[in-house]
Design a protein that fits this description.
Layout (H helix, E strand, L loop, with lengths): L1 E6 L11 H4 L5 E4 L5 H11 L2 E4 L40 E2 L3 E11 L5 E8 L3 E2 L7 E2 L1 H9 L2 H11 L5 E3 L19 H10 L3 E4 L12 E4 L2 E5 L2 E6 L4
Parallel strand pairs: 1-2, 2-3, 3-4, 6-9, 7-8, 9-10, 10-12
Antiparallel strand pairs: 1-13, 5-6, 11-12
Helix pairs in contact: 3-5
Length: 238
């Protein structure tokens, strides 16, 4: 299975008339945040492949359609939450933020000779640095991860593994992250990959100004991948 991963930057090789031919062998698309909705829409409509996305700490005009936000007293919401509940497939993509999902279209071989669906989990947002939208302290993110655990345990019981892909915007702490307040990673992501051992953790948020900078790091059984601009992964499947 070939997976196109994108984040943070509109890449001219992806956002082009030749994208359909260039990425004709792609099976799945992962959008790791900070991308405008019309860019995601272009990718989905051009490549016509199953696409999962999460939000970062920018390009959040659509965020309210997926997360009910408290309104300040006397203010008026800029979106209608109740009429937006059906927008799980906005711009033709599936929102994976703070969810555990299984995709039955893709079959992953099991050790017993049978197959199982592709297992994906995702979380949106970055570390809190200015109290902006979709920013969290490490403790807040940890509790959001805990909310995923029951479904991950079910995956383990039902399919023999917790997870194939963990889709995030921020990176784990001390893995691809930076020391400035905005770009520090989440320590709780290190706990998550140690406990649940996804095959890939795909993140964005960390810009690669020097494209010679390594974008993959192996941590135990998990490969941490920086999806900045775009990259392509291979995942064993049938």
């Amino acid at each position: 299975m070939k997976i196109l991963c994108v984040s943070d930057q509109i890449d001219p090789l992806v956002y082009s008339t030749g994208a359909k031919e260039r990425f004709s062998d792609i099976d799945l698309i992962l959008c790791a945040g900070d991308l405008p909705s019309d860019y995601i829409d272009f990718i989905v409509s051009t490549l016509n492949r199953q696409t999962y996305f999460i939000f970062g700490n920018h390009n959040l005009s659509e965020f309210g359609f997926y997360h009910k936000q408290k309104q300040k007293k006397g203010s008026h919401p800029s979106w209608d939450y109740h009429s937006a509940l059906d927008m799980e497939g906005s711009f033709g993509a599936t929102y994976a933020g703070f969810k555990v999902l299984k995709d039955k279209k893709f079959r992953i071989p099991r050790t017993n000779g049978k197959t199982r669906p592709l297992l994906i989990a995702g979380v949106s947002g970055s570390i809190r640095y200015n109290n902006g939208l979709n920013q969290y302290t490490d403790s807040q993110m940890f509790f959001k991860l805990l909310a995923l655990v029951p479904k991950l345990i079910y995956n383990r019981i039902r399919y023999g593994t917790f997870l194939d892909i963990f889709l995030t915007h921020a990176s784990p702490r001390h893995i691809h992250d930076k020391e400035d307040p905005c770009h520090k990673g989440f320590e709780c992501f290190n706990w998550f990959i140690k406990k649940f051992q996804p095959t890939y953790l795909v993140h964005g948020h960390i810009h690669l100004y020097d494209m010679n900078t390594p974008r993959t790091t192996k941590v135990g059984n998990t490969t941490v991948v920086n999806a900045y601009s775009y990259t392509i992964l291979d995942l064993e499947s049938e």
